[in-house]
From TrEMBL:
Residues 212-231 have a biased composition (Polar residues). GO terms for molecular function: DNA binding. GO terms for cellular component: nucleus. PANTHER family: PROTEIN PDC2 (PTHR19303:SF73), TRANSPOSON (PTHR19303). Residues 61-132 form the HTH CENPB-type domain. Keywords: DNA-binding, Nucleus. This is Tigger transposable element-derived protein 4. InterPro entries: CenT-Element_Derived, Homeodomain-like_sf, HTH_CenpB_DNA-bd_dom, HTH_Psq. It is found in: Nucleus. Pfam families: CENP-B_N (PF04218), HTH_Tnp_Tc5 (PF03221). Residues 190-231 are annotated as: Disordered. Its main location: nucleus.
């Protein structure tokens, strides 16, 4: 006698069975359609609410519902993870275990040990992976600024063409990348090819590792003395200004290229900047130069009168 082949149903398959049941189909029809034994059918119908909930959370492809032994702790931990990642703070396993113990203490749960097995199960249940957050370079360099022994494994900073603050997206570098971890499993540092920047170069005698500004704060020289003592002929001291910067033709072309604007949108941008007096007088915007041709067909001139045709 041949054994019955056991079919493992995913949650999405079970949801189809639940929907068929709720639509009014008879049990025999559903069992025949999905090739279900009677015991499995009743088990699925009994768990229909939890199946719906799991599928609505995007877990329709898994085979079984993973139930947490400590749901209240995990609920608090998930909310903390969301808030922490919104602040661009990196998260790892030891930090999660530490926070989970804190929540267990606050909730009065005594039999929680935050074991490695629980941590792996928690990550599987909620699809959590430890990836570097987009702003991790920012947080690490803030720590370096405070004097902590943290640094990013990059060379000297990327040079940006736009005169703006790029603290959230540029590559800060305070160590020689040659001293980083080596081996076949080491991650390779790759700099993106961005047309609006100049790529960084490794530290050398000409580009030393920068000293922490906190360590120099007490003996800081006045601005005028720094300018006069600088041995770099290309070093220019710039002071902040509240005066508006008038964009010239070259800067406007760079802006259009960096924003990848088509001709029409570039002309609209130029006309707005011109209207707000943010362009130099010699900057020519093509739509303004040819605008009269677009509307010339709507006007006729007779002696001293101009007539508009609607």
């Amino acid at each position: 006698m041949s054994k019955r082949k056991i079919k493992v149903l995913s949650l999405s398959d079970k949801l189809k069975i639940v929907n068929a049941f709720e639509s009014g189909k008879f049990r025999n029809e559903i069992q025949r359609e999905f090739n279900l034994p009677e015991s499995t059918y009743y088990k699925i119908i009994k768990s229909k609410d939890s199946i719906k909930s799991a599928c609505s959370d995007g877990h329709g492809n898994i085979k079984r519902i993973r139930v947490s032994e400590f749901p209240n702790i995990e609920k608090c931990l998930l909310e903390w993870i969301k808030q922490t990642r919104d602040k661009n703070i990196p998260i790892d396993g030891p930090l999660l275990k530490k926070k989970s113990k804190e929540f267990a203490t606050k909730l009065g749960i005594e039999n929680f040990s935050a074991s490695n097995g629980w941590l792996e199960g928690f990550k599987r249940r909620h699809d959590i992976t430890f990836k570097k957050a987009a702003g991790e370079s920012k947080s690490v360099n803030q720590a370096w600024y405070r004097g902590e022994k943290k640094s990013m494994k990059f060379a000297v900073p990327r040079i940006w063409r736009e005169p703006t603050d790029h603290i959230h997206d540029c590559y800060f570098c305070v160590v020689n990348p040659s001293k980083r971890r080596a081996g076949k499993n080491a991650k390779k540092i790759e700099y993106p090819n961005l047309p609006s920047t100049s790529a960084p170069v490794p530290h050398s005698e000409n580009f030393p590792v920068p000293s922490n500004p906190k360590q120099k704060a007490q003996g800081q020289l006045p601005l005028s003395q720094i300018s006069s003592n600088s041995g770099d002929s290309e070093f220019v001291i710039t002071s902040p200004s509240v005066e508006p910067h008038l964009i010239n033709s070259e800067e406007f072309d760079d802006l259009v290229r960096d924003l990848n604007l088509p001709k029409l949108k570039a002309e609209i941008l130029g006309s707005r900047l011109k209207q707000w007096n943010l362009l130099k007088n010699d900057v020519i915007i093509s739509d303004q130069r040819k605008r009269h041709k677009t509307f010339s067909g709507f006007f006729t001139k007779k002696t001293d009168f101009v007539i508009a045709m609607m």
